[in-house]
């Protein structure tokens, strides 16, 4: 059984693991929120039974919903407990996100072994709540070990979705109606979008379109239909075609969620990272981005300094020095994280 959601980043690792278990003949089920992005993403698997449970968002700021949401979490725990008691899973794998908390507690109450995955350098709030109930915690960054109980921690490295390894440049160009005459710039604001990035990209479009063919994944309801250009393609969110878009891209502009940036690293894509601010998050993306910059994989542009001019100038730096970033990325030793996690899940299965 799998859980995790709230954003695509809390689902993609699960999507990398699920095909392997299905291929080995396991029955796979998913517990997520009743209407979150995870429900849409997991629906692409025909043989995965999806269960929706109530959940409340875990906020770090004052909001009147903070009064109501604890009751939703309690209701979610009761729903998850009953579902897990009925379905009797052998093991639960949690990718985190606020939806995972009631599911983890429900599994613990049913004495189901729990493996948690933490992508970022520092554990998120949902995982910090869930870790005391877990059998083990898999980490992407080696440095995460110092924030966790040593007896529970397993450094496995980044989990890369299998389909990303099979992207095709020609299919990507055909999908976007691009040519091979200009380099391709891929801009990703995350599954939930990024208004400030979108605003700066469009403000710099006159300059950028002279230099690049641009694919812009701008988030739900963020498409600007007033902009029509054969050199600029906008999409709210891409799933099936993403491997092809990455294959044809020369450089990437993105937030600094750990899953995404490690996928760019695996694919050797020079990147400009624009992490969420501390006001928007707990600061984990800033730490992720700084770690990658220290390794020579990227440049970092803080959102507070983001505008059309700084965006365009940093993109130029990345493109001009792309061979240096690729050389640095080639020094990175990729672990077989997928196999390590699968072996751990097999080992703890009751």
UniProtKB/TrEMBL annotation:
It holds the Pfam family Glyco_transf_28. UDP-N-acetyl-alpha-D-glucosamine binds at residues 7-9, 161, 191, 285. Its main location: membrane. Pathway: Cell wall biogenesis; peptidoglycan biosynthesis. Keywords: Cell cycle, Cell division, Cell membrane, Cell shape, Cell wall biogenesis/degradation, Glycosyltransferase, Membrane, Peptidoglycan synthesis, Transferase. Residues 1-138 form the Glycosyltransferase family 28 N-terminal domain. SUPFAM superfamilies: UDP-Glycosyltransferase/glycogen phosphorylase. It is an enzyme of class 2 (transferase). It is found in: Cell membrane. It is a peripheral membrane protein. GO terms for cellular component: plasma membrane. Its EC number is 2.4.1.227. It comes from the Bacteria. GO terms for molecular function: UDP-N-acetyl-D-glucosamine:N-acetylmuramoyl-L-alanyl-D-glutamyl-meso-2,6-diaminopimelyl-D-alanyl-D-alanine-diphosphoundecaprenol 4-beta-N-acetylglucosaminlytransferase activity; undecaprenyldiphospho-muramoylpentapeptide beta-N-acetylglucosaminyltransferase activity. Residues 184-333 form the Glycosyl transferase family 28 C-terminal domain. It catalyses: di-trans,octa-cis-undecaprenyl diphospho-N-acetyl-alpha-D-muramoyl-L-alanyl-D-glutamyl-meso-2,6-diaminopimeloyl-D-alanyl-D-alanine + UDP-N-acetyl-alpha-D-glucosamine = di-trans,octa-cis-undecaprenyl diphospho-[N-acetyl-alpha-D-glucosaminyl-(1->4)]-N-acetyl-alpha-D-muramoyl-L-alanyl-D-glutamyl-meso-2,6-diaminopimeloyl-D-alanyl-D-alanine + UDP + H(+). NCBIfam families: PRK12446.1 (NF009102). Belongs to the glycosyltransferase 28 family. MurG subfamily. Cell wall formation. Catalyzes the transfer of a GlcNAc subunit on undecaprenyl-pyrophosphoryl-MurNAc-pentapeptide (lipid intermediate I) to form undecaprenyl-pyrophosphoryl-MurNAc-(pentapeptide)GlcNAc (lipid intermediate II). This is UDP-N-acetylglucosamine--N-acetylmuramyl-(pentapeptide) pyrophosphoryl-undecaprenol N-acetylglucosamine transferase. It comes from Cohnella luojiensis. The gene is murG.
